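Quick check before the chapter quiz. The format below is the same one you will see on the exam, so make sure you can read both the input and the output lines.
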Amino acid sequence: MTFNERFRQLYEDLASIDINDLALVYHQDIKFVDPVTRHQGLSAVKKYFANLLESVDTCQFTIHALQESDSTEGYSYSHTVEWTMTLQLKNKPDIISVDGVSLLKVRDEKIHYHRDYYDLGEMVYEHVPLLRHLIGFIKKKLDS
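Here is the expected output.
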């Protein structure tokens, strides 16, 4: 199975994975960065994912594009991933959908660096009742 196939399979239904499956795509010295936090090393990434997955009923990624960069063109990232994450938190009826992009550095079929970009407001803040109204008000003001 290729790296791209393993990556897609892992994220297809993230909530149902065995945390040890992360070692199939992530290097022991992985650096993982997202809008919330940073983690260094596979054990830290496993702990982060385990904590995240304890709070969700479902977490699925639709990968729209997984593009490998031509290393001769001088890209600092080897892969760019465009995705939509759909998740449902435990004991919450709402389904959260967030679009994002991941930049990856892959060597020897393992990810050494993973950075996610997504709208944290869309994922978190807009689902907190008081903040949802405040963010809606701010967006409306900025749009006028």
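If your answer matched, good. The mean pLDDT is 85.
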